[in-house]
């Protein structure tokens, strides 16, 4: 089984930065793509970013392109989300998940972390 644990969330002013980490246990993590999602109260969960198993390909929602960067260190079983130029609309609980099948945005993810709160004040 794979366990994912997010960390790095917090309160930041608009224009600030945060770096989220997703630490994974298990031996097969490096063979899977990993995605970041977020969900705000009263809103649907939305795709934020994903990274291929090798780290060679990355994918971003239009709303975060140019501001967020996803990366991974398979030797450390960790995926990162560097968030710069944060906006109040980025406020949400952020989750990382292991991709299983289908597209990165709309496909299936089989393991999810507990989430970490990101709050951006205006």
Low-confidence stretches: none
Largest sheet: 7 strands, mixed
Q: Give the helix/strand class.
A: mainly beta
Relative strand content: over 45%
How much is the average pLDDT? 94
Net shape: globular
Tally the helices: 0
Beta strand count: 11
Quaternary organisation of the protein chains = single chain
**What string, H for helix and E for strand, traces the elements in order?**
EEEEEEEEEEE
| Overall helicity | under 10%
Distance separating the two termini: 40 Å
Please state the CA-atom Rg, rounded to the nearest Å.
13 Å
Write the layout of secondary structure elements.
Blueprint: E1 4-7, E2 10-13, E3 18-24, E4 34-39, E5 46-51, E6 58-60, E7 68-73, E8 78-83, E9 92-101, E10 108-112, E11 116-121
Parallel strand pairs: 2-11
Antiparallel strand pairs: 1-3, 3-8, 4-5, 4-9, 5-6, 7-8, 9-10, 9-11
Describe it.
The chain has 122 residues and is mostly beta strands. The chain is 0% helix and 52% strand. It contains no helices and eleven strands. Strands 2, 4, 5, 6, 9, 10 and 11 form a seven-stranded mixed β-sheet that branches.
How would you describe this structure in keywords?
single chain; 122 residues; mainly beta; seven-stranded mixed β-sheet; four-stranded antiparallel β-sheet
What's this model, at a glance?
With 122 residues, the chain is mainly β. It has strands at residues 4-7, 10-13, 18-24, 34-39, 46-51, 58-60, 68-73, 78-83, 92-101, 108-112, 116-121.
